[in-house]
From TrEMBL:
Transmembrane segments: none
Any Gene Ontology biological process: methylation
Keyword terms: Methyltransferase, Transferase
A molecular-function term among this protein's GO annotations: S-adenosylmethionine-dependent methyltransferase activity
Location of the Methyltransferase type domain: 53-140
Name of protein: SAM-dependent methyltransferase
Family matches, as PANTHER family: METHYLTRANSFERASE (PTHR43460), METHYLTRANSFERASE TYPE 11 DOMAIN-CONTAINING PROTEIN (PTHR43460:SF1)
Source organism superkingdom: Bacteria
């Protein structure tokens, strides 16, 4: 039996959204993955590092997927529920999880790490990255690129021409160079996403809170109901995520 709008929205509005695990969306939404395989690249670098830092680790799920960690491994997270989840997940692996705001200065000494990683950081602090990297050290990260999921953003918020220009890999690589880093790899891809029911959209917007700032089911119920009818009539809601890989090195 086809599920009702009220049922889908109520369910998606009540499930927990802490951490960075999207398994609740299995069978309800899909997203293509970048060709470079960030998890594999990160894991290989961590296996060779002596001291590493994972910035904005979320619930620690990505870092926990690495087979081997360096002798010294730290992670930062600013949102308390995620920091608690990351602590439970990563402490058994010997990782120190530091609950700290994303604002500088970070609570680490200069040149403390030979590797800094991050997957989808909300903010990127290249001067701090450069400061905590040892000479010859590397920053390896997958960032959210420009106009990511903007089909969904603009469905709820209308045209956002200024926001479309943000998170540009050219601008961010220039910021890395301005902080004294050498950009050695930069790759951008746009990837197809499909949402098969309105509940998947609600869950996604509750979890990825910067997509539609201030999103609530109550405040967007009319547009959600229209989206429910659109998906029933036309099939999955299609959007495109934007991702770029960046690798930058601190001169030896």
């Amino acid at each position: 039996m086809e599920r009702t709008f009220e049922d889908l929205v109520a369910e998606a509005g009540s499930v927990p959204v802490d951490g960075w695990d999207f398994s609740w969306l299995e069978g309800r939404a899909t997203e293509q993955r970048p060709s470079w395989g960030y998890q594999r690249l990160m894991s290989a670098r961590l296996a060779r590092a002596n001291a590493a830092l994972d910035v904005q680790t979320g619930g620690g799920e990505v870092l926990a997927g690495a087979a081997d960690l360096p002798p010294t491994m730290a992670a930062t997270e600013s949102w308390p529920p995620n920091a608690a989840k990351a602590t439970r997940l990563l402490h058994p692996r010997g990782v120190v999880v530091v609950a700290t705001p994303d604002e500088p200065p970070w609570p680490f000494a200069d040149a403390a790490f030979d590797l800094v990683t991050s997957r989808h950081p909300a903010t990127v602090r290249f001067p701090e990255i450069a400061r905590v990297l040892a000479p010859g050290g590397t920053y390896l990260a997958q960032h959210v690129g420009p106009a990511s999921v903007f089909e969904l953003v603009e469905y709820f918020l209308g045209p956002q021409p200024e926001a479309r220009a943000k998170r540009d890999p050219g601008i961010e690589s220039a910021e890395a160079r301005a902080a004294g880093l050498e950009v050695v790899d930069l790759r951008l891809e746009r990837l197809r996403m499909e949402f098969f029911d309105v509940g998947a959209v609600v869950y996604f917007l509750r979890k990825v809170i910067w997509t539609v700032p201030g999103f609530t089911v109550a405040g967007h119920r009319d547009r959600l109901r229209e989206l429910h009818e659109r998906i029933r009539r036309d099939g999955p809601f299609v959007a495109h995520s934007s991702r770029f890989l960046i690798e930058a090195r601190k001169p030896a």
